[in-house]
Specification:
- The protein is an alpha/beta fold.
- The chain has 5 helices and 5 strands.
- It has one domain: Nucleotidyltransferase, domain 5, CATH 3.30.420.40.
- A 5-stranded mixed sheet has the order 3-2-1-4-5, with helices on both faces.
- β1 and β2 form a beta hairpin.
- It is globular and about 60 Å long.
């Protein structure tokens, strides 16, 4: 850049900053869905119209390494936790261990990274037909679900 005129250098610098900002905004649009209350642990990333998902056996061993499974899932999709803009987590009814572990992980991520999180139950979406994971962020907005971790549903 030594031979570049200063006006062009400023333009390139501004363009570079704007490009980085745009990339960060796009990366922050990623939505993460975690469901560890059923027979399988389920992860899904939603980015615009693209979705990426993974499942793992719902077992005690996998509960103990839930954060490792999550980080591996993100790495497989070229993402990091800081690339997530919001997290949606199933609060039950279902497995007590799955609910407890997934909620504690999300609370920790929120404390460290300040990522917004929303807890849902499929029971929250009354009168909805054919609920798919891809629709969860929209349904949480539609039903005005907030950070409602107080009342998880458990099945004994």
């Amino acid at each position: 850049m030594d031979s570049t005129p200063s006006s062009l250098e400023k333009y390139l610098s501004l363009f570079s900053c704007a490009f980085k900002l745009k990339v960060n905004i796009i990366r922050k649009m990623n939505k993460l869905i975690i469901d560890a209350v059923k027979d399988n642990i389920f992860f899904m990333i939603i980015n615009n119209n693209n979705t990426y998902s993974a499942t793992h056996e719902n077992s005690k061993n996998n509960y103990e390494k839930l954060i490792v499974l999550l980080i591996d899932f993100l790495k497989n999709n070229n993402l990091e936790i800081s690339d997530i803009g919001s997290i949606y987590i199933n609060r039950g009814p279902g497995s007590f261990a799955g609910i407890r572990n997934s909620l504690s992980i999300i609370k920790a991520i929120h404390l460290v990274k300040k990522i917004d999180y929303y807890c849902f139950s499929f029971m929250d979406f009354k009168n909805e037909i054919d609920i798919k994971y891809e629709k969860i962020p929209h349904l949480c907005s539609k039903f005005n679900l907030k950070k409602n971790l107080i009342k998880p549903y458990y099945i004994s």
